[in-house]
Amino acid sequence: MKHQQRIGDQPWLRRLLILSALTAIGLLLVMPLVAIFAQAFSAGAGVFWDNLSDRYTLHAIGLTLLVAAITVPLNLIFGVFLAWLVTRFEFIGRKLLITLIDIPFAVSPVVAGLLYLLLYGSNGWLGSWLMDHDLQLMFAWPGIVMVTVFITCPFVARELIPLMQQQGSSEEEAAVSLGANGWQMFRRVTLPNIQWALLYGVILTNARAVGEFGAVAVVSGNIRGETNTLPLHVELLYQDYNLVGAFTSASLLASLALVTLVIKSLLEWRQHRAAH
Amino acid sequence: MLFKLNKLKSGLAIAGLSLTLGATPAVGASLLNSSYDIARELFASYNELFQEHWQQTTGDNVEIRQSHGGSSRQAQAIIQGLRADVVTFNQVTDVNILHERGRLLPEDWQQRLPNASSPYYSTMAFLVRKDNPKGISNWDDLTREDVSLVMPNPKTSGNGRYSYLAALGFAQQTWGEDQDAIDSFMKGWLSRVSVFDTGGRGATNSFVERNIGDALLTFESEIQGIIEAFPDRQFEIVVPEISFLAEFPVAVVDRHAERNGNLELAQAYLEHLYSKEAQRLLAGFNYRVYDEEISAEFADRFPELTLLGITDIAGSWENAMQEHFANGGQLDQYQRR
User: Fold this and answer.
1) Which 8-state DSSP code applies to residue A29?
2) Digits of tens for pLDDT over chain A (276 positions)?
3) Is B77 an 8 Å CB contact of chain A?
4) In the CATH hierarchy, which fold is given to the domain comprising A44-275?
5) Model's pTM, two decimal places?
6) Nearest Cβ partner of A240 from B13, B32, B40?
7) Radius of gyration of chain A from its Cα atoms, rounded to whole angstroms
8) CATH class of the domain comprising B124-244+305-335
9) CATH number, domain B29-119+247-297
10) Where do the structural domains in chain A lie, given as residue ranges?
11) Is the Cβ of B255 closer than 8 Å to some Cβ of chain A?
């Protein structure tokens, strides 16, 4: 029988396609990443270290970590509850709720920031009440945490919902019928089933919480050493003509992203192995 | 197992962080200065000067916090609740807005400090490339076909507006009542602009890093700073014979300062800008100052020129905004081909 020729069969074409894909990846992904680190170290390790140990940079790192440390646990609990609710119960408005979860994805971060400002700023609906009670949310770290929680709240739920839908509730029903109480059931049956997806959601939440720029820029107030997160700090240094400093901070963010990706791949690999 | 470990780690991280954040030392009084984008180094130096002065006169330590951004954005944040005690802006209109939209300070704020509350000033000038290859020396050189310009957009940036008004002032002085000549000059130089950046630093980057244009139109102070920051590029400054008086207004934000219990401190902070040592520091940052003795010290850095204020050129800021920069205003008409 005569073998039918397909498009990818000519070796020259195959090589051409592979080569162009590799070139694109090199130019668009690898080179910029290398450039960040090359710029950060362009004036030597000493200058890199000086920029890193600068008072304001250290504060930006601390603030960014604080925001993540509050955001991630909050959204972890929120996401699990929400996923549980929409996959284990039937109620009116369930479909609507599933759609609503996606709002932070659909809305541009800048708009999200402005929404919070309109609501909690001193001219906002709740703002004048807050003002009277001397509570400062916007232009202080609580505001930054609030918008970050908003921006990152879908990640955990979005990871869990399809999985929990697919798994169904039969195992949990079995646990209950054997006399487990709610907590035992969650701890021994539900959690082991969803743990990888949950961890994956947490990693995504963390990555976004650390890197968020647009929404945070609106509510931060740009007070150096007080409300400046790491992404804002990068922009600030860049505008000050401190290129090395800007790329030093950028390299921190990039390293964080790389670590996140490595953990993610590791998890996927373990999950894959566990499945077989 | 992995789970427990992770939880433990994040718990530790939170505990560690709350410790470090809680440990931020609380110094006596704390003042928040909301300022424009490119004044970071300037106020970092001035704050040290003032802290010393305050310590000597009252014996108290004071902490000064800085917020920097585009001055319109900064004004907006203050109206929305950023509790700045003082503003040190580069545009009078942005301070006016604090009165109009938020009633945060009285309407006559400009009368509260000398020189219309502007302790220093600058003017608009040109940055040209090494040896000034296009031979640019005045505003009318900018209309030549072989010249290409870079400047911030007058629609979005005060810096751009100042250059526009400076050129208009030159045209008014040169052609007087002849509106046709003024119009064709304005059209001419605006058509030579190849990049309108949104802000001053963006325009600088286009000219310096991306090598666009034969001349950059921006503040004299910014130009001197660029020349110092890039010595090997051998850029040159050209100060035209007529230009615009760019004021840098400062004001206490009464409502916020009162609330923060900082009224006296805030006033002292701004008044000290007029002292000899502060004026010397400002001149060192390439701003022109009013103090005669200090001006004389720095005379070689600041060539003499005719400076026109907003009242000479457009009557008032309100007028200028409406007639020239609003949608469908003069600027839009000049740019229509």
Assistant:
1) I
2) 556 667 667 888 889 999 999 999 999 989 999 999 999 999 889 999 999 999 999 999 999 999 999 999 999 999 999 999 999 888 999 999 999 999 998 999 999 999 999 899 887 788 888 877 888 899 999 999 999 999 999 999 999 999 999 988 888 889 989 988 888 998 999 998 898 899 889 999 999 999 999 999 999 988 988 999 999 999 888 877 788 999 999 999 999 888 888 888 888 888 788 777
3) yes
4) MetI-like fold (1.10.3720)
5) 0.79
6) B40
7) 24
8) alpha beta
9) 3.40.190.10
10) 44-275
11) no
